[in-house]
Amino acid sequence: MPTQSIRRTWDYAQLAKETVKLRFSREGKAKHAAQCLVAQRLGKLRGLPQKMGQMIAFRSSDTDSNAFDSLYESSEPLPWSTMRSVLEAAWETDPESLFQQINPAGKAASLGQVHHATLSTGHEVAIKIQYPGIRQAVLADLHSLGWLAKPFGNLSQGFDLDGYRTTILQGLEEELDYKLEAKAQKAFAVGPGQNPWVIVPHVDEELSCENVLVSQWIDGETWQQVTATWPSDQRRELGRRLLVWFLESVFCFGQLHADLHPGNVRFQRTEDGPKIVLYDFGSVYRMDDSERLALLRLIRATRQQDESPLPLLTMLGFEPDLLQPMSARLPALCRVLLEPFCVDHPYDTRRWSLSERLNDVLGEDRMNFRIAGPPRLIYVLRAFQGIVNYLKGLDTKVLWGQAIERYLQEYQKELNALVLPKIAGEDFATIAQRLKVQVSRNGRLKANVTLAASAIDRLEQFLDEETLSRIQEEKIDLQQITADVRRRGYAPGSVFELSDPRREVKVWLE
Questions:
Q1: What would the pLDDT profile of 370-420 be if each residue is shown by its tens digit?
Q2: Which residues make Cβ contacts (< 8 Å) with residue 149, sequence separation at least 6?
Q3: Is the Cβ–Cβ distance between 20 and 151 less than 8 Å?
Q4: pLDDT tens digits along 406-435
Q5: Residues in contact with 291: Cβ distance below 8 Å, sequence separation at least 6, in sequence order
């Protein structure tokens, strides 16, 4: 075994050790120290481990993410002498002879690093240079994924690891070939990049090759600068534009930038409002028409609650034999998963509590649902999660329902003509439509409030102080009650009742 492979295997062993420590760390300082060690080792390994770290960072809470933030672009770059040799071999000439100036200080990423340069014409460009030996390292990473998955969440149990390895390998093969990335970047520029709010740098094809990508240098403010300095009206408009552009990418063009972490995005404030600068097109997911239409019809079915989600999930690639036993849970699951599209008011993603609610709805079926999903879906979920995380970070509410309505109208005929698999499943008739709160005093009705059924997840907001005080006195656990409602699939029925000689409170779903 080559010395480099032995060293990388040793680094993996140390990483696995630190992730175990992180998993069992509870106390604040110990947990943060473990996070810093994991981040340090992920950055040192570069490649696939660093990409995993970037996903961890962007999905973590504000208090947890600081330790991983360095993985976006602040990892230690390789020396210019090393990267210069790569350029010299690729171009077969002295790199400095082609430019007025090249900044030897590069910005490190997972598969390569970027150097700012100025062409002889005066145009500024970004030179992305692939790390020497990174291809072999990535292949080694994929072999290690099976046992490394255990400390990250026991992914080896039940998952189609071969399917995920194949999917990841195909994606990484594209990311490791900068000629393919240049092609994807050009295609994206005439697809979702046509949006006037989005900027895709122009590729210099003459200087780009398999391990070097040269494109227009376009800078902007970092995500950290946006959240720290942008006023609320600009953050709100940025949030709206991010969502509208994402839906346009999916349903108009079927192209998704699947690596939207903050290291690959910059933001500009212009007279025409906020704009989004995109980098790194090595991970662009392409959806076919049937996939897009099935997803859109699933959103419509959930929004209108008018057909079973099982055939639609099957058409998206889910394994029907695994979904069939949990068919009764699927309507409630879709109602939670697609909730922002189902309301006609600005939705606050910070209050979504998606993971907790989905776990309650699925119960013992949650692992089977994950296993049932097709490996390729990880790229769609990655892109979607990226948009959701930006909206959370902007602390802004957006009209998801209004944004999706355009596509429901535009593709109505195609949606109606979609031929679905003939699989029987529960429909949305089992889900309650309304939450009712009724208060009586001395036998006379004093309040009768009707809310959307989803309000059950924020029930304490709709109860008066006297009722909340009585709930505490009676030691009623509202969180447990809400979890039980989720477990029964938001089915109609009583939620709880309170009564004394003077006052009676009833809460139910119907």
A1: 888 888 888 898 899 899 999 999 999 999 999 999 999 999 999 999 999
A2: 155, 156, 159, 161
A3: yes
A4: 999 999 999 999 999 998 889 998 899 999
A5: 254, 315, 316, 317
